[in-house]
Amino acid sequence: MPFRTRSAYAFLAPYLLVFATFWVWPIIDSFLISFQNTRINPWKYSFQANWGRLFYDPAFYNALYNTLIILVIQVPVMIALATVMAVLLNSPLLKARPLFRFAFFAPVVVGEVAYAAVFRLMFSLDFGIINKMISAVGFSPISWFDNATAAMAVIILAVTWRWAGYNAIIILAGLQAIPDDVYEAATLDRVSKTQQFFHITLPLLKPIILFCVVLSVIGTMQLFTEPFLITNRGGPGGGTETLGLFLYRQGFTSLNFGYASAIAYTMAALAVVISFFNLWIGRDPK
Predict the structure, then answer these.
(1) Would the keyword Transmembrane helix turn up in this protein's UniProt record (predicted)?
(2) Average pLDDT over residues 139-162
């Protein structure tokens, strides 16, 4: 091996060692743990204890259902909203564009605990501003956290508020990469702005939008903070418990590490499958 190559690997060795110790090995070890019954001492191999349980556990299917509901509703709404926001932020008619871009991106900077606490206070039954506004127009206050559907709506609103601006900035970068000549030629051909958006902007933005969709799918499959803090650990009655929260409950509340590892790998597999499905749907026809 040449000296230059050995020197390069020598410089990389500390990082590779840390990477293997704290990333590669935990992944391998957790996969092995998923095949062990960790409710007994010492742990023993048992496929049925974890993977077998996964197929008939109603609590798992409840968490999966809640996660998919958020995925199906929240992700398309957020991506559509982010696309509209990006187009508005890219408009030359908008003044102080850097200020608005920062304002839309700012929710990502806010700590998850702080923003979750604010949303819980906003939707409080007794003194929340949302119920104050509902009462002001003559309707009865809504007990947001005592109804599974209402609590799910709060989570969807919270996640959309936090991540729509982040995706809008990514889509804005894609918008700015589209040459102005394309729009100038379309304008000369008397193509309306609406037609330009649907027949020029969206097709050229498709790779960027797909990237945002994949990121959002992965993030939704791991959703934990919002149901844990806003709806008090997935309440009411597990109506907003997600796979991430279910994993936490099995691993750190019940200390069933084998089952938690099986859930984690199931979440990862679902995220990969759904992401590849989105990429397949959005592929360019040949």
Answers:
(1) yes
(2) 94
